[in-house]
Specification:
By secondary structure, this protein is of the alpha/beta class. The longest helix has 13 residues. It is globular and about 45 Å long.
């Protein structure tokens, strides 16, 4: 459904450390969407699911050179294949500069089998990792 999602960052190296830690346990790895041999530029980083060209998740230094900001009510959610993946992703994200917005656990008010965790990246963007055990 989505081609790509983009969030802003103020420090590319810090964003790489956080999102590699958060996304690698989910099987999502960093690579350049247009130049697969490249993994990093000075202004943007991309993570793509294996064996696919979309969806893309970009973390970028804003094009207008102004400070990045997190939107109130904005969030990016990533699928996990198990509750253990949610736990590992959350723990590694916290250890890599993220902050807690809701520890891993069942969220039965969403649906039966819904297991997720919420974090903020180092720039304040809200991210969610979820396993849908009800599907």
């Amino acid at each position: 459904m989505f081609a790509h999602i983009t969030v802003g960052c103020s420090d590319v190296a810090r964003a790489i450390a956080f999102y590699d830690a958060l996304l690698n346990p989910l099987g999502i790895f960093r690579r350049d969407a247009d130049r697969p041999e490249e993994q990093i530029s000075a202004t943007h980083i991309c993570w793509i699911p294996p064996d696919s060209n979309t969806p893309l998740f970009f973390v970028v230094v804003p094009f207008d050179d102004k400070a990045p900001s997190a939107g109130n009510g904005s969030m990016v959610a990533f699928n996990a294949q198990s509750s253990d993946e949610v736990d590992r992703s959350y723990q590694q994200g916290i250890a890599s500069g993220g902050s807690d917005e809701g520890p891993p656990g069942l969220r039965l008010h969403y649906s039966a089998g819904y297991y997720g965790a919420y974090l903020r990246d180092p720039d304040g963007n809200k991210v969610h990792v979820v396993f849908r055990g009800d599907h």
